[in-house]
Design goal:
Blueprint: E1 6-8, H1 16-19, E2 22-24, E3 28-30, E4 35-41, E5 44-50, H2 54-66, E6 74-77, E7 81-85, H3 93-98, H4 102-117, E8 129-130, H5 131-134, H6 138-145, H7 147-160, E9 166-169, E10 178-180, E11 186-188, E12 194-197, H8 203-206, H9 213-218, H10 220-231, H11 235-255, H12 261-275
Parallel strand pairs: 8-12
Antiparallel strand pairs: 1-3, 2-4, 3-4, 4-5, 5-7, 6-7, 9-12, 10-11
Helix pairs in contact: 4-10, 6-7, 7-11, 11-12
Amino acid sequence: MERDRTQTPLTDYEPWLTTWQLTPSGAGFATHTSKLLPVMHGRRPAMLKVTTHPEEVSGSVVMRWWAGVGAARVLTFDDTACLLERATGTASLARMASTGADEEATAVLCRVAALLHAQDPADRPAVVLTLEEWFRELWPVAVARGGLYGRAAQEAERLLGTQTDRVVLHGDLHHDNVLDFGERGWLAIDPKGLYGERTFDYVNLLRNPEDQSAQAVERLAGRVVHVARLASVEARRLLEWTVAFTGLSAAWIANDGDEPVLDLAIAGAALGLLDG
């Protein structure tokens, strides 16, 4: 789920182990938002996720709404914990992308996105955020810093005002958030849960896997063409959303005091394709 993990004791997962009759089947670990423990739920492999982080809680609500179509099933839940079916397959989209099968990995991500986007958004959960809300932190950074941030804000403002084909979006669809569930196939985990133009959801796969950032920049043009064909979206609009979102992601990183090297590189590459 995330690379930065610290081990956690079993006591962190009570009372759910008892209440939901779970048997630990591996070491628990913590990310910056959640505590997770691989368990058995009867004979079914599952993952117990304990969190009070607002984005994670909202993501669990959206996962339940997808009801196992394109996403991992939620087996049971309460206000602070969620029990998910666990991926037990050995294939990895990130590994595929690094070993000559990047187009195949991209195709998998597009197929999963199509399943998620097919759900009728009319009855979407109340916790789902609009893209207008999601982009709110870009504007002050764009004013303060200008440059690529300013261009990203211009693109975002225009795109947000001209959205079409609005669906419930995963919001963070990339190689490490779509896992091999064996007989169930490739399924998504860890959604943000957003609502907006379908094209937006393909941006994150263009800038991932994170450990292959140089390749992501090099592959941008080819991936855009490939995604546009597979997902039936406009290549130019996908590039415009890429500039807008990488500006937002860079703003988040800059606000945390770090240097958004990858996002600025992707934004610059996308602008080169748009303006070239």
